[in-house]
Each structure stands twice: as structure tokens, then as C-alpha cells.
């Protein structure tokens, strides 16, 4: 375990106090007539946290859960960028630290809404910088 992983492991309980954006994303972007400036145009950084051991094929390993979800979201991002001209959406980095599994990505609220509707997603929050003073 390297130093960065160790720091993240102890800071995760503090960082995870952030607000889950799923309820608002689902409410605001649930139909085709949703506000395009809110749902499509505004791209921000998000952290997606997955339910440990949840996999579509019944495998309970965190590695498989993360791998399946990441394959799905990368395809969604690629298709979304092609079909909607949203070149600023993109995948960031995967995280697997103990039972904390997830990734960060630059997404619009429409994509966040799609992510939030998956059963393997625990919560989604804004990717914020945290400082300790």
C-alpha cells in the first residue's frame, strides 16, 4: 500500500460526507423535455462510488464490479460524445481501496442520471478538492 492510497483510505470517511447528487439528477433529467442547459451542456467533475461486490453476472468480487461498470460507462461516454457533440465529457481514473470502489469522470447531469439508475451505484458526488488546515 503506497502513501497516497494510505492517505485516501483514512480520508474517505471524511470525503464521503459530500452530498449525493443522484436524487436531483434523476428528478431534473428524467424525460426528453428536460432543460438542455442543465442536463446536457454543463459538464462537471464527479466521483462515482459503486456497491462493493455487486456484479451483473453474480460475481461478488470488487474487481469484477468495477470492471463491468467502467466498461459500460466508457461506452456510454464514447456514444454520448459522438451523438451529442459533447467532447468535454470523459472518464478519469478508477479507484479500488478496500471496500471503496469507484472512479472519477467529467460528466453532464444527463449521464449522471443514467449512472444513478444503475443498481451497482452506491452514490455519486461532485468531485471537490478537500484541504486540511
Can you describe this structure?
This protein is of the alpha+beta class. It has one domain (3-126): Peptidase S8 propeptide/proteinase inhibitor I9 (Alpha-Beta Plaits). Helix content is 43%, strand content 23%. The protein has 5 helices and 4 strands, in the order αααβαββαβ. It has helices at 3-15, 22-28, 36-41, 62-84, 109-116, and strands at residues 43-50, 90-97, 100-108, 121-126. Strands 2-3-1-4 form a 4-stranded antiparallel beta sheet, with helices on both faces. Helix 2 (22-28) crosses helix 5. It starts with a helix and ends in a 7-residue tail after the last strand. The relative contact order is 0.25. Pfam families: Inhibitor_I9 (PF05922). This is Inhibitor I9 domain-containing protein. Residues 1-18 form the signal peptide.
Layout of SSEs?
Layout: H1 3-15, H2 22-28, H3 36-41, E1 43-50, H4 62-84, E2 90-97, E3 100-108, H5 109-116, E4 121-126
Antiparallel strand pairs: 1-3, 1-4, 2-3
Summarize the structure.
This protein has helices at residues 3-15, 22-28, 36-41, 62-84, 109-116; strands at 43-50, 90-97, 100-108, 121-126. It has five helices and four strands. It comes from Furculomyces boomerangus.
**Can you say what the CATH homologous superfamily is?**
Peptidase S8 propeptide/proteinase inhibitor I9
How far apart are the first and last residues' alpha carbons, in Å? 25 Å
Number of strands: 4
Rounded to the nearest angstrom, the radius of gyration is 15 Å
Structural class: alpha+beta
The proportion of residues forming helix, as a percent range, comes to 40-55%
Question: What is the CATH architecture descriptor?
Answer: 2-Layer Sandwich
**Element string (H = helix, E = strand):** HHHEHEEHE
Strand content range: 15-25%
Question: CATH fold name, please?
Answer: Alpha-Beta Plaits
Instruction: Pick out the low-confidence regions.
Output: none
> Outline, from the CA principal axes?
globular
Total count of helical runs of at least 4 residues: 5
Number of domains: 1
Strand order of the largest sheet: 2-3-1-4
Q: How is the biggest beta sheet arranged?
A: 4 strands, antiparallel
Mean pLDDT level: 79
| CATH class assignment | Alpha Beta
Signal peptide: 1-18
Domain Inhibitor I9: 46-132
InterPro entries: S8pro/Inhibitor_I9 (IPR010259)
Protein name: Inhibitor I9 domain-containing protein
Amino acid at each position: 500500500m503506497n502513501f497516497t492510497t494510505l492517505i485516501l483510505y483514512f480520508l474517505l470517511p471524511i470525503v464521503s460526507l459530500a452530498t449525493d447528487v443522484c436524487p436531483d439528477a434523476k428528478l431534473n433529467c428524467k424525460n426528453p423535455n428536460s432543460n438542455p442547459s442543465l442536463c446536457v451542456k454543463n459538464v462537471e467533475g464527479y466521483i462515482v462510488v459503486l456497491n462493493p461486490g455487486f456484479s451483473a453476472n453474480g460475481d461478488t468480487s470488487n474487481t469484477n464490479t468495477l470492471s463491468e461498470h467502467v466498461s459500460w460507462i466508457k461506452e456510454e461516454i464514447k456514444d454520448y460524445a459522438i451523438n451529442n457533440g459533447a467532447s468535454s465529457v470523459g472518464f478519469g481514473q478508477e479507484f479500488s481501496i478496500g471496500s471503496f470502489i469507484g472512479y472519477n469522470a467529467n460528466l453532464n447531469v444527463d449521464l449522471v442520471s443514467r449512472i444513478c439508475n444503475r443498481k451497482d451505484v452506491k452514490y455519486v458526488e461532485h468531485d471537490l478538492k478537500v484541504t486540511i488546515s
